[in-house]
Amino acid sequence: MKPIQLIEWDRFDDRRFLDEHWQHTPLLIRGWVNPAALGIDQMVAAAGDGELGSRLVVGSFENLDWTLAYGPFAEDELPSLDRPYQSLLVQDMDKKYAQVAELLDAFRFLPNWLLDDVMVSQAGPGGSVGPHVDAYDVFLVQAAGARRWELAGNFQPDLNEDFELAVLRNFKAETSCVTEPGDVLYIPPGVAHHGIAQQNSQTWSIGLRAPSSAELLSELAAFLGEHEARLPRLTPLKYDTERAERIDQTLLQHARRLLSQAVQLDDAALVSWLGQTLTAYRQWSPDVDDDDAPDEDPETPLVFAPGTRLAWSDSGLLFVNGQQWPCPPEFAQALCRNGRIDQWPSDAAARKLVENLVEQDELIRP
Q1: Do residues 247 and 292 share a domain?
Q2: Is residue 274 included in any domain, yes or no?
Q3: Residue 133 sits in a domain of what CATH number?
Q4: How confident is the model over 105-150, as pLDDT tens digits?
Q5: Could you give the percent of the chain with pLDDT greater than 90?
Q6: Rounded to 5°, angle at Cα 244 from 240 and 250
Q7: Are residues 11 and 74 part of one domain?
Q8: Virtual CA dihedral for 164, 23, 201, 55, nearest 10 degrees?
Q9: What does the alpha-carbon distance between residue 81 and residue 69 come to, in Å, rounded to a whole number?
Q10: Alpha carbon 158 to chain centroid, angstroms
Q11: Domain residue limits at 222
């Protein structure tokens, strides 16, 4: 594996990044974003929130003594967060703290529906979750302290089954770097990585999640079952009466034709299904307090609720959390890019859309 390419923040270009690194090679951007690190009290409060996934990991790759505990944690259940070889990780922190959600503004060049969450890791010296590999892209933002990252493109995929953590059994680093506050390390899927806190350290992980082909097929099957009642069945056309139960080439070819025909949706149906599927994938669905509901006659500006997934199409559709709404394309694009409405639109269709979204609690006031 080649050494990690490094650039300064003022040389980062999103189009060049997509051409040269996206889904392919790691990249370290020095001083790109500088989030204000969360306080220990904020981390403890988040770890006790039942709507956020939290984990406490203790151990090291050198000693192979990993332990894992799942939250939520009461304050008196958590040890001191600056203890060596310890990491507290909390998912979906962008839904709890506005200062974390603001970080996502730096990643507006990526599709909104692809942004999954911001996980925050608070680690003491030597803290780590072990060498592992992800099936999705991740941006690792250093918010406080320093962390050493070891990477490998070629590795044995076997996991150490002695631990609940998905730790690679045999990991040998091929390249490494140290991230300091403001640095961002991009790691594409399939690259093994091992991060070790060099001191008290806080790292924010921007997770990007897209459905797998298997998940898409499952969603498509459900869609077809609901909307396509007249799809043909796999009834044998020709078969040997002496071996009627045999699954032969004739039956295989018939099955392939049926499956191929079933997924031949026209563009309009495909856009509708895909937009709803992508914006519903891993949707954030916390319990909503009635006191948090928007006013009946809200004032602008309006912002989308945390965790809202958005997409749009040239055909005049806006997709919000698995639902589709008629919407002028230019207005839909602006909503997806900005995530807020600063002025009520003059266009009647766009204004009706905003009213519907407010009624659906998809928009909230800041």
Answers
A1: no
A2: no
A3: 2.60.120.650
A4: 999 999 999 999 999 999 999 999 999 999 899 999 999 999 999 9
A5: 70
A6: 60
A7: yes
A8: -30
A9: 14
A10: 25
A11: 213-264
